[in-house]
Design goal:
Methylamine Dehydrogenase, Chain H; mainly beta; four-stranded antiparallel β-sheet; 31 strands
């Protein structure tokens, strides 16, 4: 179950809704403060966690590594947050009703922190790795994490401004819940790139993983590289880049990457209507060495949807949740030019992606950008937030794989959903005040009845 708890964070959410409806129909969510209005951050002493070498494994793609060095930089690490400091979460990854991980910020600092909770998300421990601050990055760093379980996690940082790197790029790993971290050997970077931004990390187990790195954009292209590791992240090999694409097209914006097992995985994309036909969904069956376009079947309600001469629709693969080695859910979103609205379809597979079945999603999806606000516990049960009216959204629930949907609640927000069972869940609710999306309102909310009632949590660093 832990594998699916890693959502895409590389694309900004465009908020057009106002926060409301937390306690019942028509009730109002306590108004959260904009992140710019949080208490001023007072930097405590630098974090004292020591980066230790990763346990040595015998990789199949590279020589056995020597000691993995800490990235060298003449700058201090990201400061740890102070006890009792209020924090704002941007992503939450609960593993059960009490324990989980999150990404968050404190005060006015823009650096992302890795956080852990053991009390249902009320208080958090700052377990951020000793990532050196990049003095050339005026907007700090942002994390692209993968949380395998309560002890094992990986994270890397990139410049929010997408500027050039001024410190070595490494990927951090912990095997003890963040008490200590080890840095990988610096990644070998392609020679020509506008920037080096890792947006997705994904691991099939404690040894085998992948990283998706963006290198530049232009002329409807999103240039990228795919890296692989077989030694738990101590060393990384570049498998794919623009000069050796291995069948993985550099065209179209990339919306994510996920793997079902050590061999089979997908890179998702959205071409924005530039390339009609089947959505950008490339599959590998050899661990990322070679890729081929997956031909999705058109949904029964629109049998011509993916035909190459159908310019009435622009379709993209926007979200993929891996539930097990054979079971995954995929959301395809298509802009209907005639109706000027986005429609979504839920695709499910129980044979590792060999075959897919499609069901139409309820409502429209105009306000969610590239990220679909969805979460699934199984192929049968899941939730999604669709567009609403008058600045609202609709929380929909299915127990039959999307064949039918039940309206749970009208919401006044959209955001990342995180359920651990049929009743218990959290959401990072986000909205724009007065349509001003440069100052987002963010609130952490939870539910104990499957989404019928949401309560605000005011998270803070544990005293």
């Amino acid at each position: 179950m832990a594998m699916k708890r890693n959502f895409l964070i590389n694309v900004s959410l465009w908020m057009v809704l106002t926060l409301a409806a937390c306690d019942g129909p028509g009730a109002t969510l306590p108004t959260p403060q904009p992140t710019t209005a949080l208490p001023t951050h007072t930097a405590p002493p630098p974090v004292t966690t020591t980066a230790t070498p990763l346990p040595q494994a015998t990789p199949t793609r590279a020589e056995s590594p020597t000691e993995a060095p800490t990235p060298e930089a003449n700058t201090p690490p990201i400061n740890s947050l102070a006890p009792s400091e209020p924090i704002t979460l941007s992503h939450i990854y609960m593993l059960d009703a009490t324990g989980g991980w999150a990404i968050g910020q404190g005060g006015e600092a823009l650096d992302d922190h890795i956080l852990k909770t053991n009390d249902g998300a009320a208080t958090w421990e700052d377990v951020t790795p000793p990532q050196p601050l990049d003095v050339a990055a005026s907007l700090g760093q942002a994390a692209a994490p993968f949380f395998l379980d309560g002890d094992t996690a990986w994270v890397t940082y990139y410049d929010r401004t997408a500027g050039p790197l001024s410190i070595p790029l490494a990927i951090w790993r912990t095997d003890d819940g963040g008490e200590s971290w080890a840095a990988s050997a610096p990644l070998e970077l392609p020679g020509t790139a506008d920037y080096h931004q890792i947006s997705d990390l994904y691991f099939a187990d404690k040894g085998t993983g992948w990283a998706l790195m963006h290198l530049g954009v232009g002329m409807s292209h999103d240039y990228m590289a795919v890296y692989g590791t077989t030694d738990g992240g101590a060393t990384w090999d570049r498998l794919i880049d623009p000069d050796a694409d291995g069948g993985l097209a550099m065209s179209c914006g990339k919306t994510g990457m996920a793997f079902a097992n050590e061999s089979t995985g997908w890179v998702l994309g959205d071409c924005g209507g530039v390339v009609p036909g089947t959505p950008y969904l490339y599959r590998t069956d050899d661990g990322g060495q070679t890729w081929a376009l997956s031909e999705l079947p058109a949904p029964a309600d629109v049998p011509t949807l993916f035909e190459s001469d159908n310019f009435d629709y622009a379709c993209g693969a926007n979200w993929l949740g891996v539930l097990s080695r054979t079971e995954s859910v995929l959301i395809v979103r298509c802009l209907d030019y005639n109706a000027s609205a986005n429609q979504g379809w839920l695709y499910t597979t129980d044979d590792g992606g060999e075959t897919w079945s499609a069901n139409a999603l309820p409502g429209t999806y105009n306000n969610v950008g590239f990220i679909i606000n969805a979460d699934f516990l199984s192929l049968a049960e899941g939730w999604i937030v669709s567009d609403g009216d008058a600045g609202g959204g609709y929380l929909q629930h299915t127990t039959d794989g999307g064949a039918t949907w039940t309206l749970v609640k009208k919401l006044g927000w959209i955001g990342q959903l995180n359920f651990v069972d049929s009743q218990t869940g959290w959401a990072v609710a986000q909205a724009c005040p007065d349509t001003d999306c440069f100052t987002r309102l963010v609130a952490l909310v939870d539910t104990a009845d499957g989404g019928g009632k949401w309560n605000e949590i005011e998270p803070m660093i544990a005293p």
